[in-house]
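We treat protein structure as text, and this decision shapes the records that our systems exchange. The tokens are whole numbers drawn from a learned vocabulary of local backbone shapes. Below, we set out a record of this kind in full and without editing:
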Amino acid sequence: MKDKVKARLRALFPGVNLSKTRLDKIADSVTSKITTEDEIDDKLNDFNDFMSFSDIAKNDDRQRAIDAKKATDDEAEAERLRLAGIAKEDDQDKEVPAWAKGLLTTVQSLQTQLAGEKGKSTINDLKAAAKLKGIPEGLAAKYVIGEGYDQETALAALETEWTEFKQIAVNGEVKDGKVIIGDQTPAGTPAAKAAIKASMEEAVKGLVETV
């Protein structure tokens, strides 16, 4: 019914340019007050007598003009800000002498180099500390130094990993109290422990070389 009301409104008042929102509201209002299509024309005429569709359309035209101007002004302001930003960047570039730009590039390069050297120094310190705890340097070498690095935390993680490696070695090399691989030395003896440690260190070395 609502679509039929809008169709009749356009037919009865062809020169009226109502906005879509306004047209929908009028159609809703008329539809709520009628029960049959035969009542549409009379109700629309009553509405027009009470409040001229032509006058309503003029208000809609004014609002459309205001909206269009605002959109144009907003676009112009956005472009002005964009150009102002470009101009500001150009001014900043002009304020920095050529020799200063070269110096800045050099400083940035040195900072990158120093960061690399610091990383090497940190990993060397970690390897030395790990060695004191009996952890292979190869295992410590593959530890990733990240932001918020803490040596004690890193050592704890490495110690746990090394303990797990050793347990895997024990589980794989010892059965019924005997060494399954190696020189057949009974498990638990210094020779058996040395064989397990040597085997694990070799495994860790191979892992690091592969990575």
